[in-house]
Specification:
alpha+beta, 430 residues, 21 strands, 11-stranded mixed sheet, globular, single chain, 23% helix, TIM Barrel
Amino acid sequence: MALAMKKMRLLLLALGLTSLLATTTAADSTRWWRGNLHTHSFWSDGDDFPEMIAELYKTNGYHFLAFTDHNTLHTTNKWVNTETAKSAKIAYPKYAARWPKDWIETRAGKDGQTEARLKFFSEYRGKFEEPGRFLLVQSEEISDRWKTAPVHMNAHNLREVIKPQGGGSVSEAISNNIAAVMEQRQRTGQPMFPHVNHPNFQFAITPEELLQVRDARFFELFNGHPGVHNNGNTTNRAPSMDRLWDIVLTRRLAELQYPVMFGLGTDDGHNYHTNSSRVSNPLRGWVWVRSEKLTPESLIAALEAGDFYSSSGVKLRDLRQSSKEIAIEIETQPGVTYTTQFIGTRRGYDPKNEPQRNAAGEALRVAHTYSKDIGAVLAEVRGAKASYTLKGDEIYVRAKVISSKPHPNPSQKGDVETAWTQPMVPAAGR
């Protein structure tokens, strides 16, 4: 195989097809990396030590992991009482059994109770990181609020903690926090990127509020926390994340001429000792990123280029997107069936939207109602391979692969393993 590839490259050089050679070389040098971008530990409201969590992900086939504790980085002294905190009573014996005594640092705290010091990111990362195999990313969940709405965002590959920036509206709070991340990125020269977390958590962020933020390029399409309502909530008139994504994409691209917004799959893990749909377990959602290297720089560049897909179980063998076609090949499992929906909005759609109102006729701060033209299923294909050729009038097209296999540990009843590709936007619509 290597000899054949070498001969092909020599032939391309001889024919002067250097651009094709560059494309071939780039494709040959990339691979898929699996990672989670939303993880909590004892540094905030998670119930385990970072070392235990990092080992869990590494041994379950992940290549990178971001710790995103609330409004903190793992850089200051913090101690956990191992005798009074319920979660620490469970976690500490496992931690002590796994790690040598000279690694664990304890002290006598209040009333003589044992406290364990949480290791800094700079201390524990060396226990897990391996070039080309596993990477830890220093991140933070910037946990802000507008009135009663929790406005949470993850910021990745940070050097310094970022305080919540606030704002006069949900959209302004999102914008201000993104600006703080990008200021640090520009000032330090280190690649970083923010993403908007779980819009339906406490029904905090409506599609109309999210789509207004020009610099918001990523949001959580799938989040493994049971309280985020990925599938929507009729009582609170909240759309599913798929529906929200289609509203945001259509209006940003067609009406505002804003950049595309990408959808991330994440865990939002908090609970590591009991598996239940009622708690926020790990290993529920992730991203597969296609890049040359397993480094923050390479991963962030690929994410910002949209060269990734999100998953809650379905794995793709191949994904190709061009200006004319989306082609998918699924890595199938025995006895499992697959349906691929190609979803998008065509030019000439009905743009009319209306706020939802209460009995008194007052507009509610919930998603507007929209035509079915937005986020329509343009084609549906069953089987291991699926492709869609653009007709020329699409504003965007994305693919959703739905399997018949139930999620092994779902956060929402009835969830099946799924994958989502990023929107393909024709050149004229970028």
